[in-house]
Amino acid sequence: MNDLDLAMNRLNQNNLSIVFVRKGKIIFESNTNGLSPFIQSINKHFQDIKESTLADKVVGKAAALLVVYAKINSVFASILSLEAAKILEYNRIPYKYDKMVDRIVNRQGTDLCPFEKKVSATSNPTEAFQCIEEMMRLLETGQ
């Protein structure tokens, strides 16, 4: 079984939100929703997830820019946005998905996801990582 199939199966069979696989081994996984486990994996396991395969429940522009930043080799998304697909294609990162959507919305379904809004004006992966990390810190401190 290749890394992409292993990551996809692990994500779906174990009801996870994110899984990184490299060379047949699970590098990192979480059942926490949102971008926080992706940021956590970058901050704590950057060298391990570099050149790995990612399986994620939701990949929008913010997550796609994190994929480029973290130098991920391939991606599976249960839900993939059109903007994320464009970023992955531009960066020649192979991907698979179950469902393509126009945009990633917030948990209430009333507006664009706040992280998607935060990165809307950039296509720079480093800038996106810094914006997302800053927004997460503000959310954690309740500001």
How would you describe this structure to a colleague?
- With 143 residues, the chain is of the alpha/beta class.
- 45% of the residues lie in helices and 23% in strands.
- The chain is built from 6 helices and 5 strands.
- Helix 3 links the parallel strand 3 and strand 4.
- Helix 3 crosses helix 6 (125-141).
- The longest helix is centred in the C-terminal third of the chain and has 17 residues, at 125-141.
SSE inventory with pairings:
Elements: H1 3-13, E1 18-22, E2 25-30, H2 36-49, E3 53-59, H3 61-69, E4 74-81, H4 82-90, E5 95-101, H5 114-118, H6 125-141
Parallel strand pairs: 3-4, 4-5
Antiparallel strand pairs: 1-2, 1-3
- What can be said about the biggest beta sheet? 5 strands, mixed
Measured as a percent range, the helix fraction is 40-55%
Output the radius of gyration: 14 Å
Report the mean per-residue pLDDT as an integer: 95
Gap between N and C termini: 45 Å
Number of strands: 5
Count of helical regions: 6
Residue stretches low in confidence (pLDDT < 50, at least 5 long) are: none
Order of helices and strands: HEEHEHEHEHH
**SS-based structural class?**
alpha/beta
Q: In what range is the share of β-strand residues?
A: 15-25%
In quaternary terms, these chains amount to single chain
Describe the global form. globular
- List the strand order in the largest sheet: 2-1-3-4-5
